[in-house]
Every structure is written in C-alpha cells, then in structure tokens.
C-alpha cells in the first residue's frame, strides 16, 4: 500500500489584525514559508510536482492563483505549477489532503501544501462585498434553489455559534473559562519555546501576536454580546489574523530517491458535510466518520486540534465525542493564537506535528469547522 509522508512543516508567526504582518503582501507571506520548507528539507525545488495552497477571499493581492504567485515570489523554478483551493476555514487542511491524494495515487511524488491569508489587507467576506457591485449580496439570498431548500433565513457563523451554544447548553461562563485557558496555554507554549522550531520569523516578529497576557474572566464578563441577547462575545471567537504555513508531502519513492527523513505518516484523510445553516457543527459527524473508517477511538490520540472558530464549537464537539480537553488544543487555539482563515489548516498541522514530536506521542487528529457546514479530518502518525 502506498504511503504519504510529512517531511517538513513551517509557519510564520500569526500576526494580529493591523499588526506586524499587516503590510506584507500575501504572496510574500506564502513565499516565506515555501523558502523555509526548501531550506529546512534541503530538497531541490525543481523536483516539486505541485504547490497547493488554501486561501479565501481571493481578490486583490490574493487573486490570480496565490499558490503559483507565492512559489514564483520565493524565486523557485518556473516549471513547477501551483493551484489555490477554497474550502473556507479548512482550505489549507484540504490542500494537505489533495497533496496526500496526489502522492497516494502515484501521480505525484513531492508536493508543497499550505495556505496564506492576510485578513488585515483583505477583510473577511471581501469577495462577497465585491459581488455587491454586480447586484449580488451573498452566495445564498438570490438563489431560487437555495431559498426553496433552506428558506429565507440568516446564514451566519455568528448565528450558528449561538445556536450551538443553545442546543448543547453551553453557558457563557463555561465558554469564557475555555477562552481563558486558550490564552494561558498559548502563553505557556510561547514562554517555554514550544513554537520556536516551527516558526520562521518575518516582519520583525518571531512570536504570535494574539495571546493576551492581561486577559481575565472579569474582563471577558464585561464585554457586550456579538448578538443582542446572545452568549457569544469577541473574547469567545477566533481572532482576525494574518499568516502563512506550509508542509512538504512526499511519496515513498521520493523518500527513497532523495534520501528524505519522514517526520510523520498521513494515516487518514476525510471530509464530511452537515447542515449549512448550522454551519459549524461539521467536526462532530466528520470525527465520528473518521473514527469509523480508521477503527480508532477518541482515546487513541495523544493530541487533538479542533479549530477554535468559537468556543461553543469546540465544547459541543467535546461533549459529543467524549474527548478529554486536556489533550485538545494543548498550546492554545484560534481564540488566543488567531485564525488566518486560508492558512489555519496548515498552521494547526504544523503545530500539532511539532508538539507530537515534543511529547513523543504517536497519533494526532485535526479537524475544523468550515463554511457550508463542512469539516476535514486528518490523522497523522509520528515516525
């Protein structure tokens, strides 16, 4: 049976909105991690078969196939192509999946997979805003087929996060305790140097800008809800951020021919969908599906990464799967570290791989909610 291996993984620090990375062109952010992969792995970049990058809101500086542009900006060979994918928040995780599938199929041997997003330069939903110039306000409201199926109701991540909190009876206080833990874990990881090996400094920074050392339950309790009468506040949602991350995925043949040393094996990849109006519940059925396909239980994983789009998403997932939160997002998540949408899937995997190695664990699982009610699941095995 063919195998797909992770050879190397690198990321930029995650910049806060308007922070140190805000003025860096998205192509240069992507090029930075591509160069880091080539340098760290020692590969001949001309041997790369494809570059697959995740990115959303691909307008302006992120338009025109940012995967290809970032590769060229990094000074890499012209003959290597690139393609940009959009599975919303899971775009970079899907890029890794496509890379693994290319390798497993035997049609590619060496692929750079990752993602990039500068949310300071290109705000979230910019692509929808551009559509308004042509008379379309959202991808849903003007579609007769959509309206016939789902009705004229609000489709929003904020509404979905509130619906999840209500359905799973997750209190604001419970979510605030979770958010505070995210910041504290991220700060501990930073202070202990856990991120040092995975981060390649850029823009004058070598550490993530998001974690708040001065936050507290008292400060969170004073914030106004995002929606009138709701439980969610800005403190309970992921931070708008800038950044890039990438992984080098190789076949058995590439490992043998190029003398590469795999760090992990991609054990399982899958993606599932759920109700798009609920939008953020996808990780629950996606995880259940992955466990069924692999024959594993949630307790088999030394580490788990569930993207902290909102605190309610992770807490509902944990209630449904029975996962021990002591093994989930152990170095903090999107609430503290930020969520540069198109890059987060690769950022999570980069951090998960490094932490799995640091702990000497064997298996790790990653999942994240995505627009349209979808969720990817990746299981890796440390080698």
TrEMBL record:
This is Acetyl-CoA C-acetyltransferase. PROSITE patterns: THIOLASE_2. GO terms for molecular function: acyltransferase activity, transferring groups other than amino-acyl groups. Keywords: Acyltransferase, Transferase. The active site is at residues 89, 339, 369. Transmembrane segments: none annotated. Residues 5-252 form the Thiolase N-terminal domain.
